[in-house]
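Weekly structure sync, notes
Attendees: PL (lead), two postdocs, one rotation student
Agenda item 3: pending single-chain targets
PL asked that the sequence for the first pending target be pasted directly into the notes so everyone works from the same version. It is reproduced below exactly as submitted, 116 residues in total.
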Amino acid sequence: MVYIQEAHPSDLWQVQANVRDEVVFASPKTDAERIDLATACVRKLGIKIPALIDGIADGAEQDYTGWPDRLYVIDKDGRVTFKSQPGPFGFHPAEMEKALVKTLGGGAEAAARRED
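Predicted structure, written out during the meeting:
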């Protein structure tokens, strides 16, 4: 997971769901502020996978068009083997799973074992 720019900061585009859920934050202005915000997000959502944080210059966002959210599979050589449509509506977990299996070299046999 890569945490990129805040989607609904209080100083730009606040949504009522954030107010209701008490997750109201202004746009961070420094890397340190973004780190603090990402840390709060990971804790609040109970995220258990490693989270990286895009720098305040938004390099990962610019390279991968991650906003609003996007799913990728990247192989061990750094090549993108799967890129979802923008989420959450463009997420198709079965397609991503197939790409993961293929990327990891498991083929159809490994996918069938996981379905059992």
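Discussion points:
- The two ends are 28 Å apart (CA to CA).
- The chain has five helices and four strands.
Action: rotation student to compare against the earlier draft before next sync.
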